[in-house]
Amino acid sequence: MAKTSSIERNRKRERLAKQYANRRAKLKAAALDENLPLEERYAARLKLAQLPRNASPTRIRNRCELTGRPRGFYRKLKLSRIALRELASNGQVPGMVKSSW
Question: At 13, which CATH number?
Fold first, then answer.
């Protein structure tokens, strides 16, 4: 199990990214719009830089839903490889069978 502080920090980042998503999208669109004057685009870049760093979606780390493990993460299942193996061994993942030869 991962440290609860790191899991909570990641949850806080997810909340902030969701909260600032519209504002960030508008500012990014204004900053990249070639039709706007250079001063307005620059002002949009400055406002974008004023937003909290943790509001950026790239700072969110993919973590296992069960254990919080950050590595060996399957995006489709939102589980780590270890948690997936444990659930599959218990027969809780439909269609997944442990291989043996």
Answer: 1.10.287.1480
Residue 80, both tokens: 């780590």
Residue 31's φ and ψ, nearest 5 degrees, are -70, -30
CATH number for the domain that contains residue 74? 4.10.830.10
| Cα 7 to Cα 68: distance, rounded to the nearest angstrom | 6
pTM recorded for the entire structure: 0.84
- pLDDT, one tens digit per residue, over 76-100 is 999 999 999 999 999 999 998 878 7
What is the rounded distance in angstroms from the CA atom of residue 2 to the CA atom of residue 28? 34
Look up residue 52 and give its two tokens: 């909290």
State whether 10 and 50 are in the same domain. yes
Distance CA 94, CA 8 (A): 30
